């Protein structure tokens, strides 16, 4: 494996209390996700995963390729940091590796299950319920618990999908995000500021809410989104036939754009911005609001955020330097 010497450039970001390190990562070409634990950095791109040392940022291992067999992945992949292993979700299966990237085992799922997450001996996964437009029935996204053989145990909740054949596609629709943490399931599936919390049997424990004024979607916002869909390589070929005639917008942005849980804190970010910073709310695991702040998260586009995660009070974000044609790791301490 080619070894690359890496140097660290420390700079000050023009924001009180925020200091960043910038680390060049010349081996990274098209990153999708980043995850960080106490000693390593994990980066996914395409169907492969790269593992870097958190101490000196050297590349320790790369693994994964396109395919259906063990240690192979299809479509998108998602990294999950588990207590004693590394979980890699791809279409229709969950693969387990050591933290060093050595293959352990894989679990096959039933068709059309996505984003599989371990829940003790069971699993949580997203499914779909297809509606019939002739009977005026809706299409839903489902969140289910499955046993170790992937037999459905319980439906936790269902949420109306953002695409309905009779209504078209709702741009900036209702989020459907979940994470397993501390043997509980944390879910956002509402346009309002609500995080629902379930135990490992799928029984609802409580909800986390806060007073929040949602941002109105303006005509400028709509144009910006449609211009992105018209020019982005992933959507431009279908723009005239699908996105342009099918698109519809709600009146307001959802309250929650996304969330993650790390080190017993819940980081929730919204659609509101202040110049080059994004609004965040931080809660403890009981739902107590600890702080509200704006963090310097870099956007790739009006829709997508450059891959980032938060670990032990630091933001780790991959940012592309277009002049140098290189991805760099920005490490910013939250104060």
Gist of the model:
The chain is mainly beta and 335 residues long. The protein has helices spanning 219-231, 239-246; strands spanning 9-12, 19-24, 33-36, 40-45, 48-53, 59-63, 65-66, 72-73, 78-81, 86-90, 93-97, 103-108, 114-119, 122-129, 140-146, 152-160, 163-164, 168-170, 177-181, 184-188, 194-198, 204-209, 247-248, 258-262, 265-274, 277-284, 289-295, 308-311, 314-321, 326-333.
Write the topology of this structure.
Blueprint: E1 9-12, E2 19-24, E3 33-36, E4 40-45, E5 48-53, E6 59-63, E7 65-66, E8 72-73, E9 78-81, E10 86-90, E11 93-97, E12 103-108, E13 114-119, E14 122-129, E15 140-146, E16 152-160, E17 163-164, E18 168-170, E19 177-181, E20 184-188, E21 194-198, E22 204-209, H1 219-231, H2 239-246, E23 247-248, E24 258-262, E25 265-274, E26 277-284, E27 289-295, E28 308-311, E29 314-321, E30 326-333
């Amino acid at each position: 494996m080619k070894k690359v010497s890496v140097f660290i450039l420390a700079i000050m970001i023009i924001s009180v209390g925020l200091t960043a390190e910038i680390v060049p990562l010349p081996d990274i070409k098209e990153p999708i996700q980043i995850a960080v634990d106490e000693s390593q950095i994990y980066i996914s791109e395409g169907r492969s995963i790269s593992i870097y040392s958190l101490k000196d940022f050297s590349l320790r291992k790369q693994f994964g390729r396109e395919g259906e067999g063990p240690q192979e992945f299809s479509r998108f992949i998602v990294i999950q940091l588990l207590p004693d292993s590394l979980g890699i979700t791809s279409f229709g299966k969950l693969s387990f590796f050591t933290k060093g990237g050595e293959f352990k085992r894989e679990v096959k799922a039933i068709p059309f299950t996505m984003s599989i997450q371990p829940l003790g001996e069971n699993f949580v996964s997203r499914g779909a319920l297809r509606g019939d437009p002739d009977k005026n029935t809706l299409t839903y996204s489902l969140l289910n618990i499955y046993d170790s053989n992937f037999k459905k145990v319980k439906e936790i909740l269902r949420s109306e999908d953002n695409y309905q054949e009779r209504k078209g596609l709702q741009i900036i629709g209702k989020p459907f995000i979940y994470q397993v943490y501390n043997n509980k399931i944390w879910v956002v599936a509402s346009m309002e500021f609500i995080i629902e919390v379930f135990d490992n049997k799928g029984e609802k424990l409580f909800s986390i809410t806060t007073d929040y004024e949602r941002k109105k979607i303006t005509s400028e916002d709509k144009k910006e989104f449609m211009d992105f869909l018209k020019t982005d390589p992933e959507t431009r070929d279908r723009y005239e036939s699908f996105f342009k005639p099918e698109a519809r917008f709600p009146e307001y942005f959802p309250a929650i754009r996304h969330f993650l849980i790390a080190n017993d804190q819940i980081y929730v970010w919204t659609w509101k911005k202040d110049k080059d910073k994004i609004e965040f709310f931080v809660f403890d695991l009981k739902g107590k609001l600890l702080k509200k702040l704006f963090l310097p998260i870099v956007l790739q586009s009006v829709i997508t955020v450059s891959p980032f995660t938060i670990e032990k009070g630091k933001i780790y974000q991959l940012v592309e330097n277009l002049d140098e044609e290189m991805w760099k790791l920005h490490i910013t301490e939250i104060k």
